């Protein structure tokens, strides 16, 4: 199989680099300065064993590849807000022997939240959800880091509509050879919703800094409680915190890497890079959507979604809203909703 990584940033670059290290054929898809750096200098992957460089084909879209191969696997690793545009570019790509990528090729969504598989199923027949537990950072164009050891990450995967198949198992075997644990599960959405609850902290971290200390942790607990109440009202099950801890154990321990500081999670990184967009609409926003559908107030998640979006549009620095100010706004939002 050949792996085409659509969005070779922190997560995509790490998975692509590790697959290449394991001897798998990999194509990286990127844009702008990152694409230029990949083409000129290769992918530089900073991991606990050192900096590894991989000279891999790098393209902006499907056209330079010509007809795609019947054994191609598409790994979608863009942020959710960029999913539709990426899929529009790849779904109609022709495949050798007839048909299109959307009709014939498997697509794995290596993304936060639960929306991308639903978007993908509108354009692709064979969609797989992935619950991504993979600490990684986009350091600079051409350079990504992943400090996890002894495993680089844990990637639960399964068919987006539920169930498993031989394709998922073959991909999981390749990922296992590439320093990932990749359980194939019939209920991948259950793991994705569990991850979603944890990702509700991303916007808080992005606007006011690390979730450290009693005040920050207490605020996140209130945000998460809204999410748990919404999922319960919607009848959506999710893996428990204890179950997640049992699976992860000490398999992915963060090792400090020289020249590759980890400043924060994916939303924090979006603000630090000044991308102008952030995925809060599909994290906190997913809880707000479900809350409105099922009559559960979600004032804290609404506040974080709004603040994160404002920070992204106005290119504000991550962590620049004092926690005391955020806590005051949260108290006001809850009082207004009461």
How many beta-strand segments? 14
**Portion in helices:** 40-55%
CATH homology superfamily name of the largest domain: NAD(P)-binding Rossmann-like Domain
Oligomeric form of this entry?
A: single chain
Strand residues, percent? 15-25%
What does this protein look like?
The protein has 338 residues and is of the alpha/beta class. It has two domains: 2-186, NAD(P)-binding Rossmann-like Domain (Rossmann fold); 190-238 and 250-337, N-(1-d-carboxylethyl)-l-norvaline Dehydrogenase, domain 2, CATH 1.10.1040.10. The chain contains 14 helices and 14 strands. The strands form three sheets. Strands 5-2-1-6-7-8-12-13 form an eight-stranded mixed beta sheet. It has a four-stranded mixed beta sheet with strand order 4-3-10-9. A two-stranded antiparallel ribbon has the order 11-14. The mean pLDDT is 96.
What is the secondary structure topology, with strand pairs?
Elements: E1 2-6, H1 10-21, E2 25-29, H2 32-41, E3 43-47, E4 50-54, E5 58-59, E6 72-76, H3 83-91, H4 101-104, E7 106-110, H5 115-120, E8 126-133, E9 137-140, E10 143-145, E11 148-150, E12 153-159, H6 166-177, E13 180-181, H7 188-199, H8 201-208, H9 213-234, H10 241-248, E14 252-254, H11 266-273, H12 284-294, H13 299-313, H14 323-337
Parallel strand pairs: 1-2, 1-6, 2-5, 3-10, 6-7, 7-8, 12-13
Antiparallel strand pairs: 3-4, 8-12, 9-10, 11-14
Helix pairs in contact: 8-11, 8-13, 9-12, 12-13
């Amino acid at each position: 199989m050949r792996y085409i990584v659509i969005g070779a940033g922190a997560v995509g670059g790490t998975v692509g680099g590790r697959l290449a290290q394991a001897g798998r054929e990999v194509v990286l898809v990127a844009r702008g300065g990152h694409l230029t750096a990949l083409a000129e200098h290769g992918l530089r992957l900073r991991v606990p064993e050192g900096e590894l460089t991989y000279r891999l084909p790098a393209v902006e879209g499907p056209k330079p590849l010509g007809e795609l191969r019947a054994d191609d696997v598409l790994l979608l690793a863009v942020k959710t807000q960029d999913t539709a545009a990426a899929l529009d570019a790849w779904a109609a790509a022709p495949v050798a022997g007839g048909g299109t990528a959307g009709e014939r090729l498997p697509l794995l969504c290596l993304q936060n939240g639960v929306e991308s598989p639903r978007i993908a199923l509108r354009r692709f027949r064979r969609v797989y959800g992935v619950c991504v537990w993979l600490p990684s950072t986009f350091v600079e164009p051409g350079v990504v880091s992943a400090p996890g050891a002894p495993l680089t990450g844990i990637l639960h995967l399964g068919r987006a509509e539920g169930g498993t198949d031989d394709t998922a198992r073959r991909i999981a075997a390749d990922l296992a050879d590439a320093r990932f644990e990749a359980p194939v599960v019939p209920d991948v959405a259950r793991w994705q919703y569990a991850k979603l609850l944890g990702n509700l902290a991303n916007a808080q971290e992005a606007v006011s800094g690390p979730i450290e200390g009693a005040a920050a942790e207490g605020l996140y607990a209130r945000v998460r409680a809204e999410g748990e109440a919404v999922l319960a009202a919607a009848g959506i099950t999710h893996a428990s915190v204890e179950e997640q801890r049992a699976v992860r154990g000490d398999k992915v321990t963060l090792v400090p890497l020289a020249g590759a500081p980890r400043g924060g999670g994916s939303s924090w990184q979006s603000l630090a890079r000044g991308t102008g967009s952030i995925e809060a609409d599909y994290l906190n926003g997913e809880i707000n959507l479900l809350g409105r559908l099922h009559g559960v107030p979600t004032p804290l998640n609404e506040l974080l979604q709004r603040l994160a979006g404002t920070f992204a549009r106005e290119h504000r620095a991550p962590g620049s809203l004092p926690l005391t100010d955020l806590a005051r706004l949260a108290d006001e939002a809850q009082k207004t909703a009461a």
